[in-house]
């Protein structure tokens, strides 16, 4: 009976040592995962920044094109109304 009692604390000590080693391994793995996540987050931020810059330049180009089209449309509208006024004025013999 006394030999069993002496072996039990050793087995418990071994189990505790194994648990401590497992905890250390898990802790190191979590540190590596955190480091990898930080690196991935930085890569994603760089990727999103480049996509955001591309989108901004595309929207600016579209905005410039829309303003050009609007100004052309206004110019043609003024020319059309001026021509229509000239035809009506000529038909009415205002000049």
Could you characterize the architecture of this molecule?
With 95 residues, this protein is mainly alpha-helical. It is built from one helix and no strands. It is rod-shaped. The termini are far apart. 0% of the residues are buried.
So what's the overall shape? Answer: rod-shaped
- Strand portion: under 5%
Helix and strand sequence: H
Unreliable stretches: none
Structural class: mainly alpha
Supply database-style keywords.
95 residues, mainly alpha
In short:
The chain has 95 residues and is an all-alpha fold. Helices cover 95% and strands 0% of the residues. It is rod-shaped.
Compile the SSE list and pairings:
Layout: H1 2-91
